[in-house]
Amino acid sequence: MEKVVPHIGRWKLADLSDPAWQYLPQTPAPRLEELSISRSHDIYPASGPKILRGEFTSLQSLTLDRVGLAGSLPNFGRNLRFLAVRQLSLMDSGITYNEIHRLLLLHPNLIEVELQASQWSNPSATEPLEDVDLPNLHRFSLLDPGSNGLASIPLLQKISAPSCTSFELGIGYYTEGSLELLQALEPFFATVVTAAAKNLQLSITNDPGFVLEIGRDESRFKLSTWGLCQDLELGWVTDMLARYRSNITHLKLLTQRTPSGGTLSNLFTNLTAVTEFYVESVIFEVWRVLGRPARTTVEGGPAPWLLPALEELVIFDPLGIDCGLVISSILAREAAAAEIHVEHRPTRLKGVEYQGMPWVGDDRRWSELLGDRFVFKSLTNH
User: How many other CB atoms are there within 10 angstroms of residue 142's CB atom?
Assistant: First the structure.
């Protein structure tokens, strides 16, 4: 390393792991564009690598794995575009949101930010956070903040990222303050659905953790958690869809906990453009609300049907439940679709694919109802 150190000033890329970083003095690195520092053991804040006290006027990408951030943080220059800070072990030094806030504040031209830790410290009450303007930020992920996940709220509330089209938050077990956290996510939700204005895909799974994804192609909002209340989350999603009039054409719903009929009805009311629906058969409330018109009438006339534009239906049935309720629901929609003079009738289904146990394929009720529009796929073949 003694022979290498004098040449640091000419480096453009450095990928350092312990113990190599220990030999690096406080040396300017004006040509360095990419820097990655990682440790297999914890670096305590007081003993962070000295290279972080150098000058990095050309640095564009910085990755810190298990590296302490306490103390006077360096300014990595206005060219920094990518920042990743990862603390993946409970043995790692705790990162405070104040330290992350200072890093973001010092580097307003960031395009991608990834923050991942198994433990986070609450923001200091004596140090109010300033607003952070990140006009060029396109991708932002905050993953696994553990039991202190709610401490991220003040940070999220201070970040303005009008160009952020990819946002991901992964949180753990907690319920207190959940609504406040969801409210802090609204600006990120809004930028994603606005960027991908048409033909959005909405996926909601709860098997067993809750995962919400909405977007299209590279524009995507994702929330995953183990601790919030499903009806609260679905209620928040419903409000967001209504507020931003999102054009959802593809819907996926898989859950081990059946949402209430009212929650589903409210959600489906905002999904008038959905043409494709992938759903788990065991969610019985789905078939109850889809098999009849909505309760609200329109100017005294016939009430509209939920998911009125639905054309393609994929049913996932890993348990081999009785298909009676599903068939009754589809039968009712088919009958309503055939009533040509009814204004608010649902669209006639173009196809139904049933993924289930082999005996479902032998149920003649499907072919009698849908003919060649019905396709069966046995799950035992997968």
Answer: 21
Distance spanning both ends of the chain, measured CA to CA: 54
Q: State yes or no: pLDDT of 17 exceeds 70.
A: yes
Q: What is the pLDDT, as a whole number, of residue 16?
A: 78
| CA–CA distance, 240 with 222 (Å, rounded to integer) | 14
Q: Please, are residues 317 and 361 in contact by the beta-carbon 8 Å criterion?
A: no
Per-residue pLDDT, 138: 96
Contacts of 339 (CB under 8 A, 6+ apart): 345
* CA gap 174, 147 in Å, rounded: 7
Q: What are the tens digits of pLDDT across the range 104-114?
A: 998 999 999 99
Burial class for 115, CB neighbours closer than 10 Å (0-12, 13-18, 19+): buried
Q: What is the DSSP string of 248-310?
A: EEEEEEEESSPPPHHHHHHHHHT-TT--EEEEETT-HHHHHHHTSB-SS-BTTBPPPBSSTT-
In terms of Cα–Cα distance, which of 240, 204, 246 is closest to 224? 204
pLDDT digits (tens, 9 = 90+) for 143-197: 876 555 667 788 889 999 999 999 998 877 655 567 888 899 999 999 999 887 7
pLDDT value of position 228: 59
Which residues fall within 8 angstroms of residue 204, CB to CB, at 6 or more apart? 210, 211, 212, 234, 237, 252, 253, 254, 255
